[in-house]
Amino acid sequence: MVGSLSAIPLPLPSPRRSLGPGDGTRHWYENDLGWETVPGEPVRLVVGLRFDVLDVPVEAGRPALRHLGPGSPVAVGGDRMRLLVAAGSAEELPGLLQWLEWGPSVLEPDLVALGAGTLMEAPPTPGAGPLGARPLPPGRSGSQGAAVWLRPPSGCEVEASLPTLSAVRGGRGAPDLVRLVDTLAAHCHRIRLRRACAQPSVCPRGLE
Predict the structure, then answer these.
(1) What is the pLDDT at residue 137?
(2) pLDDT tens digits for range 3-28
(3) Where are the alpha helices (DSSP H) in 78-176?
(4) Inter-residue contact 71 to 158 (CB < 8 Å)
(5) Cis peptide before 126, with omega less than 30 degrees from 0?
(6) CB within 8 A of 104, min separation 6: which ones?
């Protein structure tokens, strides 16, 4: 009897699906923040639905941080800083620059707006990986220039902390997009002037 029981094959456990390198990151963005991602690796965020992005040199972005609320997310990758702003801001940026008397052509390619129809590579979840939970100072990034959160988003209501034009229209008390863009534009312009001064033949008078 014992021998016959031992001959009955035991059911094998179902193999576990191996987690991809971005599964934890994707879950955090989609479930904790409610931000949409697209399939594939690395994890990429859909821009234009919950937020837009202003992509600027770190040197220009650093002085603009004072115009952001403590909950406004900011990422750093290589020598670029990505400031999250209210959805629709990218579409409003050309008109806003014109109103501020900054010609868009003067600021390209330093000030770049990402809006509907674009994607942003998702920085790793705060605290994940060898970088730990410590935010990196402006100008530093993860390995090979991968973006990391300088100021990570927190909670599904993060959009209320994003800079918006409604702040100057008696809106929800979010940071003022106008002041943020004016500061970014001024510093992007200075970067452009310094770049021109590296070529003495085109350096504006008085800036030599």
Answers:
(1) 43
(2) 544 455 545 544 444 445 568 999 99
(3) 89-99, 104-107
(4) yes
(5) no
(6) 93, 94, 97, 98
pLDDT at 29 over 80: yes
Neighbours of 66 (CB within 10 A): 10
User: Average pLDDT for residues 63-88, to the nearest whole number?
Assistant: 95
Torsion, Cα of 188, 191, 196, 197 (10° steps):
150
pLDDT tens figures, 151-175: 999 888 899 999 998 755 445 567 9
Are 119 and 41 in contact by the 8 Å Cβ rule? The answer is no
**Is pLDDT above 50 for 93?**
yes
Give the single-character DSSP code of 172.
S
Task: Give the separation between CA 66 and CA 169, rounded to whole angstroms.
Answer: 20
Q: What is the DSSP string of 65-88?
A: GGGS-TT--EEEETTEEEEEE-TT
Starting at the edge strand found earlier in the chain, the sheet holding 119-121 runs: 37-38, 44-46, 119-121
Torsion-angle region of 50 (φ positive above 0: left; ψ -120 to 50: alpha; else: beta): alpha
Question: Which residues of the chain form beta strands (DSSP E)?
Answer: 37-38, 44-46, 52-57, 74-77, 80-85, 112-114, 119-121, 148-151
- CA Rg, the chain, in Å? 23
CA 143 from centroid of its chain's CA atoms: 17
Q: For the CA atoms of 45, 86, 159, 127, what is the dihedral angle to 10 degrees?
A: 50
Mean pLDDT of the chain: 80
